[in-house]
Amino acid sequence: MTTRWLFGDQLGPHFVDDHRGPLLMVESTGVFRRRRFHRAKAHLVLSAMRHRAAELGDRLTYVQAETYAEVVRPLASAGDVEVVHPTSYAALGLVERLGCTVLPPRGFATAREDFERWAEGRRGKRLLMEDFYRRARQAHGVLLDGGEPAGGQWNFDHENRQPPPKGADTLGVTEPWWPGEDDIDAQVREDLDRWERDGEVSFIGRDGPRIFPATRRQALRALDHFVEHRLPEFGAHEDAILEGDPWMAHSLVSAPMNLGLLDPLEVVERAEEAYRSGAAPIESVEGFVRQVIGWRDYVWHVYWHMGDGYRRENALAARQRIPQWFAELDGDATDARCLSHTLDRVAEHGWVHHIPRLMVLGSYALQRGWAPAQVTDWFHRAFVDGYDWVMVPNIVGMSQHADGGQMMTKPYTSGGAYINTMSDHCGSCRFDPKVRVGEDACPFSAGYWWFLDRHRERFEGNHRMSRAVRGLDRLKDLAELVEQEDARGNRAP
């Protein structure tokens, strides 16, 4: 009888509901020896795997081993192991070398074949996420009224870019639902502690009480709570940052979704129900839907469409190493409040929302010229919801503009003015976002012009960047700024 091998991100019912035979799951300690993951991420993944094993009982064989291959090879040699399409090139290569039967991917709204047909039909035009997203909405009948977009427009992004409320410490929304821990979590923590004591593995970040769902039941509770209590407030301030409110109105369901505990279509259906019942406005619901079956699916498909070599793209020839203070999540190393606070949050939770990731961490890496492969690896290891398929397009294609514009028309970076507008960081920072040169110079404001100066020729013909590039000629202190930033290099600001 055929055995179905489940990876640790294939934990929901939709990965087994068509299979009546035996199941296999392998907990590979070698994965943690090879790379330094966030401790909270290691805890979450192992907890989720062991919880799933407990749920499936005798139907599943759960094996702890150094490598996947030593467990699977004897079974696969008999030709009776199948696996749902893995989520990375490395894992896919492994299962193919072992001779496993590979089933189509699950856990995404749009099939790979459908995306490839769409991409081929573009006839060389850029694979715009917005076009893909609209097509997905139509294909799945999401937020449509008589074939037209609910609310009269496809995209409410303009309404969803408001800065934080003036003078507010928090958005004032209900906190997310938090799961409780159990004996399985205690055993995972004990094992991780022992592995560290024995020098077998090491981690970055801290492992506090688990805050992300590790079971299907917990994931559904978290989703329902978000939709009922937080989704109505999600849209307007989804790009805003408040130091006293790490969660804002975000869903925090990316981690359980990427573990396979939730299917994206059930997530957007639940959100649409809130809109149809009048419990949540279209702006919030559309913004959330766009994240789930728009951006998330789009990133998944770009990962496979571009090929495994895409991860090595480096169009801006960025070669600087990530400095140790950043790699180790040392927020105390820098006086730049936005960097310090964000690194502290990542150290504590293994999570911050998309704007600190893109416009603080990613933007700083881009300005400093850090090697995109290193940045990709760091994001993969440091975030609880980070996987290879997630981070390669998000970092190479979007954050670091390393693909030269294949995915995004412009690099996502800014001076300190953006951070000052969209957050409350700058008010408690010793640097001034309006100052470029000198002791009070904001590292982002200086870094932005430093970055543009280094890449002037590349971006002066970019219709979305040409105006900014021309602004270099108006800077009377440009030479002094470049000298200042060249000297600063990778030193913590």
Automatic annotation (TrEMBL):
List the taxonomic lineage. Bacteria, Bacillati, Actinomycetota, Actinomycetes, Propionibacteriales
A Pfam cross-reference name: DPRP
Q: According to the lineage, what is the superkingdom? A: Bacteria
Protein name, please?
Cryptochrome/photolyase family protein
Which organism is the protein's source?
Answer: Nocardioides pini
